[in-house]
Amino acid sequence: MTENTAFHVHIPQNMTVLLNLYNKAPRSLIMAGGTHLMNHTMKPDGEHHSILAVGQLDELKKISRTDRYIELGSCVTINEMIDAQLGVASPLLLDTMSHMGPYPIRNVSTIGGNLCIPEKRMDLFPVLLLMDARMELRHVKRKRNGRASYKSRWIHINSFLDAEGRPDLAEGEILSRIRIPFYDGSFHFHRKVNIQDNDFFTINALASLDKGVLSDVRVAFTNGGLFILRSRDMEANLMGRRFPLTRKELDEVMSGLSRYFSKPENPYEEYLMNSLFRQLLESLADPSDTGDFSLQ
Ligand SMILES: Cc1cc2nc3c(=O)[nH]c(=O)nc-3n(C[C@H](O)[C@H](O)[C@H](O)COP(=O)(O)OP(=O)(O)OC[C@H]3O[C@@H](n4cnc5c(N)ncnc54)[C@H](O)[C@@H]3O)c2cc1C
To answer: Residue ranges per domain, the chain?
Structure first.
């Protein structure tokens, strides 16, 4: 019979204590809402026996705003974000959050946990990528004389992932704040389709149209949370076009999709990519229509 080692749960009172504990035991697990960890990582015979429960840390629960951006502590929950009227700042973010899991899960799951899941990019990552979010990462460094030096660095969300697509956090480093600039474009588009089990294919887009002419467009696909696909060339190819597109233009844009993105291996995912992209183009022709949809 395997003997289980007890978990040690630490609830640090403030950031200084948290960073020092994590520095001393960098193999500890950071637990925010715990909705992902409880389902995936917390095996009784697993190797992680030290847990740093950060979900209630005041410094990680703050929300502040300026006229240019909103700043959220990493432990702000999804429902707190919805209640903070983030939709006024970003209907795309609000739309995305409203489709994330059941209400009780949204009550505890955090923005930081959503971004830091090692093996998959969840729903918020592509949206925050399109919104040019920045992230603050913090850790403590021990000097030779034993003194602590507290480090903070701000990075663009673009550089948060390593070559394998996993969060690029250094040893003992945590995500502390996320800064989301306001986007003043008039158009957003969010679709999420189940592929299998808990895997979804998504498309998210932000755009600005001036009298039907596209002056800005940002599009990201995610494929079962494993890939984030964004092509600046594809966006540049759409920019300056007048909507609705002519039939010829629509066919040309649709057939060009494979030039910018490699074809998904699974035919259903290829179908979803084409079908959702076509829906995006049709919605750009009628920007008031960003509501519910069905896939034929
Ligand atoms: C029933 C159900 C439905 C779900 N539906 C959705 C959905 O629709 N969309 C979706 O995107 N997700 C969904 N999820 C997945 C998950 O709940 C969310 O992604 C959630 O936001 C994770 O946040 P958390 O605070 O619970 O993370 P946790 O489980 O606490 O942590 C997740 C990971 O991030 C790390 N971590 C957490 N905070 C930090 C930090 N500040 N710094 C460094 N590392 C950190 C943890 O160590 C862990 O590896 C669902 C989960 C369940 C159980």
So the answer is: 1-183, 187-285
pTM of this prediction exceeds 0.85 = yes
Q: What is the mean pLDDT of residues 148-171?
A: 95
Q: How far is the CA of 122 from the centre of ligand 1 (A)?
A: 8
Q: Is 273 in the pocket of ligand 1 (CB under 6 A)?
A: no
3-state secondary structure of 273: helix
The topology under which CATH files domain 1-183 is: 3.30.465
Q: Could you tell me the pLDDT band of residue 293, with boundaries at 50, 70 and 90?
A: very low
* Ligand 1 atom at minimal distance to the Cα of residue 40: 29
Question: Using only C-alpha atoms, what is the Rg of the chain?
Answer: 21
Q: Reply yes or no on whether the pLDDT at 270 is more than 80.
A: yes
Phi, psi of 218 (to 5 degrees): -135, 125
Ligand 1: centre distance to CA 92 (Å):
20
* Cβ–ligand 1 contact at 36 (below 6 Å): yes
| Stretch 122-144: mean pLDDT | 95
